[in-house]
Amino acid sequence: MRGVKKQNLPSKTCIVCQRPFSWRKKWEKIWDEVKYCSNQCRKHK
């Protein structure tokens, strides 16, 4: 993802709050497994 502009980053929809969230560097290796936009949504699954 290096060199990609912010508006061109992949995004997903959170399965709890239904809000879209964008790719983050810390999720680089696990992007396919990410389902929640935040720890708060993860706790309220």
Automatic annotation (TrEMBL):
It holds the Pfam family DUF2256. It comes from the Bacteria. This is DUF2256 domain-containing protein. InterPro entries: UCP037205. It comes from Flavobacterium silvisoli.
